[in-house]
Amino acid sequence: MKNNIPDPVLLPPTETRTSFSGVQQRRFIFLLFLGAGLVLVVAWLPDAARKSLWHALGAQRGLVVLLALFALLTLSLIWSAGQRLDMQIFRLFNLRRYPGWMDRLMWLTTQLGNMLVAFMIALFFFILSYRRLAVEILLGTISLWILVEIIKALSARDRPFLTFDKARVIGWREKGRSFPSGHTTQIFFLMTLFIHYFQLGIGASIALYSVAALVGFTRIYVGVHYPRDVIAGIVLGSVWGLLAMLVDRYWLFLHF
């Protein structure tokens, strides 16, 4: 261990494997629960709120496209060829031998998607008197974490190092399921929120999303996520950031 950063470790072979057919059944049930949950949420909304929601979605075509893309990514989990493609891309980036300084840099970069970093950013903006933004970051982060954990529990997708004996893990073996990537979701939520809140230009937006994309890549690099987990995190985090701005526009009447 150098500079308090754990060295890469190769994990021993996993003794037990879950049959792919059983995984498919669980994921199909997950899709049913997800669809039913969305229907119930929309049905629960008051008529005025539902109409406002449809109006907002109609005005945000990009949001609708992202929602459709996330649905397709979720459906792809029951596609066996998708798993093989995921594994091929994972091996391409994870099994390469990189210099030690690169491993340490990637491990540090991946921490930008940690929920604690979001809390510190919220505190920073609160101190700077951007209190409404601080509240949006705080509430958005907590609600997004809950949503991601629910999706992970229902999707029941094992992390790469549990299904691939030679996976190279930088740091510690993270617990929980794999789909979607929580760190990627979190960082894209923050960047999307910042871009729309501050009305940033193209250059600044590209810079922020480049940092977020690097965080997503590190999740594959450190061996804790498949590519589709990261892509789903990109989509879900962006959707959550856009929804936060819609909530701010239509339903958030708190004044700070």
Report on the structure:
- The protein has 256 residues and is an all-alpha fold.
- The protein has a single domain (18-250), classed as Vanadium-containing Chloroperoxidase, domain 1, CATH 1.20.144.
- 71% of the residues lie in helices and 2% in strands.
- It has helices at 20-44, 47-59, 61-75, 80-94, 100-110, 115-127, 131-155, 160-163, 182-197, 202-221, 227-250; strands spanning 9-10, 168-169.
- Strands 1-2 form a two-stranded antiparallel sheet.
- α3 packs antiparallel against α11, α9 packs parallel to α11 and α10 (202-221) packs across α11.
- It is globular.
What are the salient characteristics of this protein?
Vanadium-containing Chloroperoxidase, domain 1, mainly alpha, two-stranded antiparallel sheet, globular, 11 helices
**How many structural domains are formed by the residues?**
1
Number of helices: 11
Q: Assess the beta-strand content as a share of residues.
A: under 5%
Q: Oligomeric state of the chains?
A: single chain
The biggest sheet, with number of strands, parallel, antiparallel or mixed sense and barrel status, is:
2 strands, antiparallel
CATH architecture: Up-down Bundle
